[in-house]
């Protein structure tokens, strides 16, 4: 139900176009596939992914001897789900959280993508699952970042560990870890700076923060979540490449999917970068974060 509301723009646009295509073509032929490719690309599915997808679709249509475009709809959904998971099992790729020790989640991403908001939402979600959560205000660079995280900390009802603006992020994270340990917290979520103007500095800062986490907590960071703005298409893809070159990104939080008709980016990210989308942002409120499930997502598109 959440997908249905949050993904309304993508759903309306996508299912509208597919239904229109089916009504206009009736017969499955080369022109039909070509227009289908255009529809998928316009939903930001990504050219490479669309090629893979349509190739698989053509094979399946041939195998099942499908002639009528009406029958092709189900095969499209199947293939969309398949392209997302590849050879993996169809499962929600859950957050990696330890049961009986502190888990650390490092959150990275460029300014403005919705990093702070997503941290707040995730803290709320984990809190609701009965976890004791602490936040560390590791973005000491952007003006207002610490205060903004504080506001989200209040909303989610979790503690925020912070220092003054301009202080060493690694020191803040170190403090955060100690505070989390002494409070017997289950999860520490670490914010980081997101200025991309000076890529080398940013990446050095992230490595330093990561080293502190690795040193202080065995097995940590348990997740490195990259937050991407789902409305930015190829820009999001290139950010994903930059960050995954610099650090081991273990999952994506794709935000603002409620504000775009181009939700197909989810499929492109997974298929082209092989990083699972763990959460999607479907609004600005504290509860508007949804665990991503490709099956529900794809079938939601056609619902
Ligand atoms: P940061 O600079 O990456 O920390 O970005 P913020 O968390 O401050 O978010 C930037 C803007 O995007 C804010 O106005 C948020 O309300 C908005 N935002 C974040 N996530 C979502 C989402 O899933 N949906 C919508 N519609 N807006 C979002």
Q: Residue ranges: pLDDT <50 for 5 or more in a row? A: none
- Rounded to an integer in angstroms, the radius of gyration calculated over CA atoms is 21 Å
Biggest sheet, spatial arrangement of strands: 3-2-4-1-5-6-7-8
What is the structural class?
alpha/beta
Main sheet record: 8 strands, mixed
Number of helices: 12
- Average pLDDT score: 92
What general form does the structure show?
Answer: elongated
How far apart the termini lie comes to: 10 Å
Number of strands: 8
Describe it for me?
The protein has about 300 residues and is of the alpha/beta class. About 50% of the residues lie in helices and about 10% in strands. The protein contains twelve helices and eight strands. The protein has helices at about 1-5, 10-25, 30-40, 45-65, 70-85, 115-130, 145-155, 170-180, 200-215, 235-245, 265-275, 295-300; strands spanning about 105-110, 135, 160, 185-190, 225-230, 250-255, 275-280, 290. An eight-stranded mixed sheet has the order 3-2-4-1-5-6-7-8, sandwiched between helices. Strand 2, helix 7 (about 145-155) and strand 3 (about 160) form a beta-alpha-beta unit. Helix 4 crosses helix 11, helix 5 packs across helix 11 and helix 8 (about 170-180) packs parallel to helix 9 (about 200-215). It is elongated. The structure holds guanosine-5'-diphosphate.
């Amino acid at each position: 139900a959440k997908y249905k509301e949050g993904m309304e723009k993508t759903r309306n646009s996508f299912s509208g176009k597919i239904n229109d295509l089916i009504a206009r073509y009736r017969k499955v032929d080369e022109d039909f596939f070509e227009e289908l490719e255009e529809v998928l690309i316009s939903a930001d599915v990504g050219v490479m992914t669309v090629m893979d997808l349509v190739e698989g679709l053509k094979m399946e249509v041939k195998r099942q001897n499908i002639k009528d475009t009406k029958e092709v709809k189900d095969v499209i959904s199947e293939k969309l789900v398949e392209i997302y998971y590849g050879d993996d099992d169809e499962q929600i790729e859950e957050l990696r959280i330890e049961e009986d020790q502190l888990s650390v989640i490092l959150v990275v991403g460029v300014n403005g993508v919705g990093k702070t908001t997503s941290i707040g939402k995730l803290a709320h979600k984990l809190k609701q699952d009965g976890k004791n959560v602490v936040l560390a205000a590791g973005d000491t660079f952007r003006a207002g970042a610490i205060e903004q995280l504080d506001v989200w900390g209040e909303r989610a009802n979790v503690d925020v560990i912070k220092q003054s603006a301009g202080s060493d992020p690694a020191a803040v994270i170190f403090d955060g870890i100690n505070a989390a340990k002494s409070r017997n917290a289950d999860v520490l979520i670490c914010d980081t700076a997101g200025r991309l103007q000076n890529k080398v500095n940013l990446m050095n800062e992230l490595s330093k923060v990561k080293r502190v986490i690795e040193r202080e907590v065995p097995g940590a960071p348990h997740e490195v979540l990259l937050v991407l703005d789902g409305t930015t298409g190829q820009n999001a893809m290139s950010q994903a490449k930059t960050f995954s070159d610099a650090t081991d990104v273990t999952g994506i939080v794709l935000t603002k999917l409620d504000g775009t008709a181009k939700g197909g980016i989810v499929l492109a990210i997974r298929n082209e970068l092989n990083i699972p989308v763990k959460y999607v942002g479907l609004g600005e409120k504290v509860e508007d974060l949804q665990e991503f499930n490709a099956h529900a997502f794809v079938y939601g598109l056609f619902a």
